Amino acid sequence: MSVLVTDFSGTYAAQGFLPWLQEQAGEGLVYRDFTGLEGTCCYCDAQKEINEGLPAELPRLRFIDSGDYHYMSHLLALRETQPFHLVLLDHHPDNQEPAFGGVLSCGSWVSAMQEENPQLRSVLAIGPDACPENLPEGWLEQRRGERVYVSLDKDILDRSWARTDWSQGTHTLEQVQDLLTRILEAASVVAVDICGELSPSKGGGPEDLRINYETNKALYTHVIKHL
User: Which residue spans within the chain are E strands per DSSP?
Assistant: First the structure.
């Protein structure tokens, strides 16, 4: 199965996840190196360059770097040509109003998607304050067979399972995997985006990189069983 990696910070190589993924996916790995691209960290002022660098056909599983680049879910979802529901697994709602003249950011991309993506039908956020911690009863049944786009920020996880540069939630890896299983088995999942890294340039030490590496491997292995 193919997998897309968008590399902005070099963290996947620092973890050892990138070479591991190359062994697992082989020619199915679609790697895009954006590490030298300016105007990308937290605020995206390089949409044109990013879009031009993406492949024409997108793999359904994507690793999109740290939460600083979570806006990639909005850019990737703009490729969808049929209606879909967004399920956001995140410790933050990412629905702030854009700042600095409406520049897309990691904190405003959900609002941007709601305003700019004509295919988006609804947003279910799991994990942020005042949002459910699990799938609401009946939600999947009501959307059985409909198209669902999953965007996962590992900051929903407790620090035993992920190390990010944002505040984090209390979910275990097992809980997140269970959520993914239920969604993947019941709905027509069009994409799974995964972010939530901690790069060495942001203070990620060997233990942080090790934990993220192990969780990334577990998430990759879990998702490809169902996609």
Answer: 3-7, 29-33, 61-63, 84-89, 120-126, 147-153, 188-195
In terms of C-beta density within 10 A (0-12 exposed, 13-18 middle, 19 or more buried), how is residue 31 classed? middle
The model's pTM is: 0.97
- Which tokens is 134 given? 């699990």
pLDDT at 190 over 80: yes
Please tell me the distance from the alpha carbon of residue 46 to that of residue 53, in angstroms, as a whole number: 11
Please list, in sequence order, all residues whose beta carbon lies within 8 angstroms of the beta carbon of residue 92, skipping any fewer than 6 positions away.
Answer: 67, 107, 128, 153, 155, 166, 167
Q: What distance lies between CA 67 and its chain's CA centroid? A: 8
Q: Are 3 and 62 in contact (CB under 8 A)?
A: yes
Nearest to 94 by CA among 129, 61, 63, 62: 129
pLDDT single digits (tens) 13-53: 999 999 999 999 999 999 999 999 999 999 999 999 999 99
